[in-house]
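Quick entry between incubations.
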Amino acid sequence: MRSAKTLVFCLCLVPALVLVWDSVTGGLSVNPIEDITHRTGDWALRFLLLTLAVTPFRWLSGWNEVIRYRRMLGLFTFWYASLHFSTYIVFDHFFDIRSIADDVIERKYVTAGFLGFVLMLPLAVTSTQGWIRRLGKRWSILHRLIYVAAVAGVVHFLWLVKLETSEPLVYAAVLSGLFLVRVVRRKLTRAAGHRVPSGETPATF
Amino acid sequence: MLIKQAPDILSSQITPENLYWNRRSFIRAASGAALGIAGTATFGGTAGDLLAAPQSDLTDLRQSQFSTADAPNSYDEITSYNNFYEFGLQKEDPKRYADELSIEPWSVRVEGHMNKPAANYTLEDILAPHPLEERIYRLRCVEAWSMVVPWVGFPLGDLLKRFEPTSRAKFVKFETLVRPEEFRGQRARNLQYPYVEGLRMDEAMNPLAILAVGLYGKTLLNQNGAPIRLVVPWKYGFKSIKSIVKIEFVEEEPRNTWNIAIPNEYGFYANVNPEVDHPRWSQASERRIGEFFRQQTQMFNGYGYQVASMYDGMDLAERY
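Done. Structure below.
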């Protein structure tokens, strides 16, 4: 189990390592800041969807162990989103608070991305065992914020590109699928008169 | 039209210590090599000498008072980071797929309100009488990045005058080649094609507006709009239409492709203006490719000394 977790951890680092490798070997475009921004943003979204896929995958496969990877994937989502966010703050705007504030207020794709990132902050902070215990039932409620963050992330991408929407629409489709699975399951369990077994956290981060 | 001196140019600055400025020795070496390689030609003099060899050197270029003293971007930067949706949406696509387009033979249809007959003119006919100059211009993309490009070309107005536009010619409309077999972006219908752009007559006649056939002393590569493209340095890059096959003198303001695609974001004028933001990008600053810090964007991309008077009394926020 431990070695499997280490393996997944290392796999999650691969996109970042590729980025570092490309940065030092000249593999980025002639606009490297844009390149880094796009790649870290892409991976943040991919990890977000991967995180949200864990629970449906567990239902469909019956492989309960997979839940052990959910927190790690969620934290990697946050980590890539942080890289994306800091690239924007440091490299793109070099801490120019005024131009950043203008961006967040006036450009709705930035507003959406900023919102998504801010919503993930409390989730990352409360991801420890201690916080799960302390918050009890409220923890699951709090962590439903991930759904809002996911929508914000996909909308952020959609509004950014506007015209060439095929790529963000793939993310939107996957996210919709992941939502749909949850809705269907809820309906089915209700219809069957079952309740979600206690001890099983609802579909969250 | 009063032709003014670019305010930022000092004769001592015309020759920065860039690799580019060793081009004469580079060209000498290249033409030396050409002696041993049949089919590679070196051209000089007027544009009429320019034949469609895969990539030819353009020598004996006139220098221009309109050139900026800013250091040019590298040839690699200029030829590998392009917006040319006919080849695809990504900046790397035009370079990646440039070879799929064949530009031989090339002709340009010229028609509309003019005294000369409407016809398809061969590229040689189009270029023949025009001496080529080097114009080192800033290029400001609407996406808030910029470059400095040493174009080779000649004033658009000089070409237009040859066709004797009539008084009904209020605008000039340009079209890019439509050839979906070779343009994958056109197969994917990522925009409405043909790509259309236009200029008001006085803008087209402004001495800063040029038709470019080369850069860095070589004929254009396909990703940069070969064999002939417009360069309008005081407007956002999308106005500078590439691979032109049609020029038409029209009475009504033509609708340009990006205006058709997203009207609230892209207007007809598209003058570089740090005061008027694009909905998705602040236009107050820009990142010069190759530099870390953003720099302030200048009104009319710094070419106001030559173009601002054309827009006296016009609401530039309204007519973006």
